[in-house]
Task: inverse folding
């Protein structure tokens, strides 16, 4: 989007300019979305979604293959981090 706006010399670029540490422009509103996990089913659905993000992004073939995921912990009982605990514990 930014590339298109730059190519078109769009006046909208001045409205999107934020010149922050990590970016010069901000298109999307920064908003952390909190979702209450009221049921075990809802929690598992969100956990599966998070575990499958690296697969959808093409970073790995299987969720448990992604180094920075807890999927390997849940699927294979392997962990590189001591802080992980199973949600059933």
Result:
């Amino acid at each position: 989007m930014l590339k298109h706006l730059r190519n078109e010399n769009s006046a909208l670029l001045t409205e999107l300019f934020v010149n922050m540490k990590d970016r010069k422009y901000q298109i999307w509103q920064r908003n952390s979305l909190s979702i209450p996990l009221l049921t075990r089913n809802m929690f598992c659905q969100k956990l599966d979604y998070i575990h499958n993000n690296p697969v959808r992004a093409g970073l790995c073939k299987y969720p448990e293959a992604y180094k920075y995921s807890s999927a390997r912990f849940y699927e294979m009982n392997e962990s590189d981090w001591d802080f992980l605990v199973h949600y059933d514990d």
